[in-house]
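Data availability (excerpt). The following record was deposited with the supplementary files.
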Amino acid sequence: MEISGVSSKAYTSAAAAVEEEDELKETQEENAAEEAKEYGVASKETEEKDVAQFSSSDYGEDDVEEKAANYLKNIMFTYNLTDESAAALQNYLNTFDVARFIKDYGPFTSTSEISAAMYAAVGSLIKQQEE
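Predicted structure:
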């Protein structure tokens, strides 16, 4: 099964842009602190917190759970699966922990990213019957 529509270049360039923005912000804060010291003004130190921020275009838990369930149902319907494989996929669907899935594979901004992560998670469970 080929997965298309996901570009590693987009992730790399987005990560580089975020790093560049963070470096620029740090440089500006350092310059402001130096100027404040030069003029005898006390500068306010900012606390850095470890916070995960999601953009407004990221899928929420409900959306991810719906897309993941649709992915598994599509696999179970379209593939000629063995009984064991179908049971394993149904069990995975019944015990699906969306929060852990997002933590392990997310955040997600498109359905194709969710599909790729689902394939990574359940690809080993998919076994077709031999004809």
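Summary of structural features: Residues 8-38 form the longest helix (31 residues).
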